[in-house]
Specification:
The complex is a heterodimer of chains A (101) and B (329). Chain A is an alpha+beta fold and 101 residues long. Chain A has two helices and three strands. In chain A, strands 2-1-3 form a three-stranded antiparallel sheet, with helices on one face. In chain A, 18% of the residues are buried. In chain B, helix 5 crosses helix 9. The chains are: A alpha+beta (101), B mainly alpha (329). Bound molecules: fe (ii) ion (FE2) (2 copies). One fe (ii) ion (FE2) binds next to helix 3 and helix 6 of chain B. One fe (ii) ion binds next to helix 3 and helix 6 of chain B.
């Protein structure tokens, strides 16, 4: 069996216009970053707008485990971290501040 | 490491803890939750998905062959551009799907090799010759339509990477379908010769198209398990009905007839009735004994061999070696 079609996996991110974040679109197999970009352009840049593309070797990515997804769960009320967690507009009106806060 | 297939343990009936794992897995899948590569999954779920996605990927690659052969003979420049784009899309679909299957633990290399060696299957419809330009039109309209019925259903299935690939694929299929219908309208509203050409293509492709969604539910051995695990959300017969309900009226509207004397709409059940395809013949065809099976594999093998120098050059460039020139075969 030949081993010349396996190659490394690169994850592909594209940016649709300047100012937008790069978004993950999929992955390609390639020998290096340069050829990965070539493959990625063919695979993910055929139609949609794109101004910039990143390719990242998949083995360079560190990820959390799905079974540990509870680390992102909130055990307590986190509304104190949010603007909506405060009734400050009402309080500001009470002290005569009628402008936006 | 990301998206690396982790072989999970205790994933077979009889293994310690299998039943508890399975119950949790089935509860999650039943809720409509998606399964991702690192998750525990039954060995059987993994194997069934590898089998399905591998066949699907092969079908995209082999599906590009009958259409690719027609690119030089497209009747207009616009049709030629569209056909080039479609063929490139189909090959791209194959790549996306090999990658999705790879997250389950089978290497892309292995899958490519198994197709070339004739060990792996691909869709029945690509084992037939595309004899005329009308065949290209019928493939692009009706076979892509049948594929879309299957792929939009599978896109909502339980395995995350397969679903993501299919959503991207379905987006591109919308162009294939529209352009395919456009080409068929051209022929159906054209000269007598064009209309006859289209009808002739429909006559030859009808049986393979009716076989496309696979054996009837009575004969399909995997369906129940696949539906329970939400790999498939519709049975083969349900997919066939969905296809017929949507596209048969459009075909009749084009003035086409269908070579099946038993075909009629059953008002009581609101379903189309048809002559059951010959499933023995279907199995023969997908085993590699169709009219164009040998040609398809020979073409695929030739493309693989003729592209070897590109792969060698890329590998050499990465290793910092002198890039070899293509050698005459
Ligand atoms: Fe496709
Ligand atoms: Fe297609």
């Amino acid at each position: 069996m030949s081993t010349d079609t396996q190659w490394r996996v690169f994850e592909v991110f594209h940016q649709q216009s300047r100012g937008e974040p790069h978004i993950h679109v999929g992955s390609v197999h390639a020998t290096d970053g340069e050829s990965a970009l070539l493959m990625a352009k063919e695979q993910f840049g055929r139609r949609q707008a794109c101004v910039n593309m990143w390719v990242v070797p998949a083995d360079a990515i560190t990820e959390t485990a799905y079974e540990d997804a509870d680390i992102f769960e909130h055990g307590t009320d986190k509304s104190y971290r949010e603007a909506f967690g405060y009734e400050t507009t009402k309080r500001a009106r009470a002290i005569g501040d009628t402008r936006d806060i | 490491m990301m998206m690396q297939p982790t072989r999970c343990t205790n994933d077979k009936p009889g293994d310690p803890g299998y039943e508890e794992h399975l119950a949790a897995f089935e509860a999650r899948v039943g809720r409509g939750d998606k399964v991702e590569p690192g998750d525990w999954m039954p060995c059987e779920y993994r194997q069934q998905l590898i089998r399905l996605i591998h066949v699907h990927a092969n079908s995209e690659i082999c599906g590009a062959l009958p259409e690719g052969g027609w690119i030089p003979h497209a009747p207009t420049f616009k049709r030629k551009l569209a056909l080039c784009a479609k063929v490139q899309d189909e090959v791209g679909h194959g790549q996306l799907l090999y990658r999705a299957a790879e997250t389950l633990g089978k290497s892309r290399e292995e899958m490519i090799e198994e197709l070339i060696n004739g060990k792996a299957k691909y869709s029945n419809v690509f084992h037939y010759h595309a004899k005329t330009w009308a065949d290209v039109c019928v493939i692009a309209w009706l076979i892509d339509a049948a594929a879309i019925v299957n792929q939009t259903m599978m896109a909502d299935g339980s395995y995350g990477p397969y679903g993501r690939a299919l959503k991207r694929i379905c987006y591109e299929e919308a162009f294939h379908l529209t352009h395919g219908y456009d080409m068929c309208i051209s022929l159906a509203t054209g000269s007598k010769v064009q209309r006859e050409m289209l009808q002739d293509a429909v006559n030859r492709w009808w049986e393979p198209i009716m076989m496309f969604h696979g054996p009837s539910d009575k004969e399909s051995k995997h369906t129940e398990q696949l539906m329970k695990w939400r790999i498939k959300l519709m049975t083969n017969d349900e997919q066939r009905q969905t296809f017929l309900k949507k596209y048969l009226p459009k075909m009749l509207n084009l003035g086409l007839t269908v070579p099946d004397p038993n075909l009629h709409f059953d008002e009581a059940t609101k379903e189309w009735r048809y002559t059951e395809p010959n499933w023995k013949r279907f199995l023969e065809v997908v085993r590699g004994n169709g009219p164009a099976s040998a040609l398809r594999l020979a073409t695929r093998r030739m493309a693989h061999e003729e592209g070897a120098w590109v792969r060698r050059a890329l590998a050499a460039a990465q290793a910092g070696d002198k890039v070899p020139m293509p050698t005459a075969a």
